[in-house]
């Protein structure tokens, strides 16, 4: 399997996953042209995409979904709540490209199984995904106010996990955001802080070693890549986890494709 985060952050998200036979995107939250560019830069043809799986209707996850679907005739997969909320912003989609999936379901795309799970976030019906091919798994879990047992159970066996490390709590608290927005982000249905992300990673590493964990969906205003990385590293060390021996920890880039990972 191949995994590549094309873009990750509050300014837009899109992840590429493929197997021998299937190619999908999880979210397309930037203009279609930007996703095209990113795919071409990793030598992938957008025409070959078998589907776009949408996590939720916030614009940083759906901005390019409609354009790509119309241009390359790509099916869009989302649950019924998300479809209702995003319909007016993604434009007209051909009937045969409207694919409604259940919140906790497995969708077969050629030799890939795409498993959806529930995440706590302030959108209508948000989901994370684990993509399975033979005995390999890759998971994406961003936009979550808390790291729940359900998320843990769904991603614990994945070799590659992109996990949200959205904000530094002090930067957010003392930063420029209005009070209500700060409260929303800090709430149980907001976004995961660097500290909470670190605790989640400790649990995941305790379950199995040698995972590749990619920190993603960083806030542009309330975080810094170095700070997120260092915060997680410190917590791992405090828990006796060696960053070279036990885990591979990397960052997802905001403006360009990150590492092209093959497992
Ligand atoms: Zn969101
Ligand atoms: Zn988001």
TrEMBL record:
Species for this entry: Clostridium weizhouense
Residue intervals of the Metallo-beta-lactamase domain: 11-191
InterPro entries in UniProt: Metallo-B-lactamas (IPR001279), RibonucZ/Hydroxyglut_hydro (IPR036866), WalJ/YycJ-like (IPR052533)
A Pfam cross-reference name: Lactamase_B_2
Protein name according to UniProt: MBL fold metallo-hydrolase
Superkingdom classification of source: Bacteria
Extent of the signal sequence: none
């Amino acid at each position: 399997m191949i995994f590549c985060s094309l873009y990750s952050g509050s300014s837009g998200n899109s992840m590429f996953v493929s197997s021998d036979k299937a190619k999908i995107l999880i979210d397309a939250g930037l203009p279609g042209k930007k996703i095209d560019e990113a795919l071409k830069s990793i030598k992938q043809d957008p025409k070959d995409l078998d589907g776009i799986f949408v996590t939720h209707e916030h614009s940083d996850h759906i901005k390019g979904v409609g354009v790509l679907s119309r241009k390359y005739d790509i099916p869009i997969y989302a649950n019924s709540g998300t479809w209702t909320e995003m319909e007016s912003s993604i434009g007209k989609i051909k009937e045969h490209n409207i694919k409604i999936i259940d919140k906790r379901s497995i969708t077969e795309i050629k030799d890939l199984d795409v498993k959806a799970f529930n995440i706590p976030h302030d959108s209508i019906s948000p989901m994370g995904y684990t993509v399975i091919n033979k005995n390999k798994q890759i998971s994406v879990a961003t936009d979550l106010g808390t790291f729940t047992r359900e998320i843990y159970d769904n991603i614990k066996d994945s070799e590659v996990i992109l996990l949200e490390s959205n904000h530094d709590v002090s930067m957010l608290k003392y930063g420029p955001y209005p009070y209500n927005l700060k409260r929303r982000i800090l709430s149980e249905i907001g976004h995961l802080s660097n500290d909470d992300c670190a605790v989640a990673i400790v649990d995941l590493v305790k379950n199995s070693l040698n995972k590749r964990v990619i920190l993603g969906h960083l806030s542009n205003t309330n975080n810094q890549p170095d700070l997120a990385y260092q915060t997680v590293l410190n917590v791992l060390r405090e828990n006796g986890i060696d960053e070279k021996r036990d885990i591979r920890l990397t960052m997802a880039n905001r403006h360009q494709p990150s590492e092209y990972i093959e497992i």
